[in-house]
Write a structure and sequence with these properties.
This protein is an alpha+beta fold. It has one domain. It contains three helices and five strands. It has a five-stranded mixed sheet, sandwiched between helices.
Amino acid sequence: MKKRLQLALVVLLTLASCARFNRYNAGTAELWIGGQVSVEQECQRRGAVTLMLDSRILGCTDFFDAVIVSIADPKIIAHEYCHWSKQTASHQVCPEP
């Protein structure tokens, strides 16, 4: 019984995290677009490289899982895609918007 409850909890948490983002194919990566709070939580959960403006996390690139997470701002998406396409976390190569 306890294992069933644990499995149900894992499934519910997985489904809840999936629903927070619109997902798109971005070539060799998957682009997740969501609200600022969801993006911040997901980037923190992944421990991914982040773009922070005014202490807010607006996007990140998870190189290991090939996922770009961003708010719905074309400048932030382009910035994170630069990181992905150049495979670098450098802000000298991909300047902050």
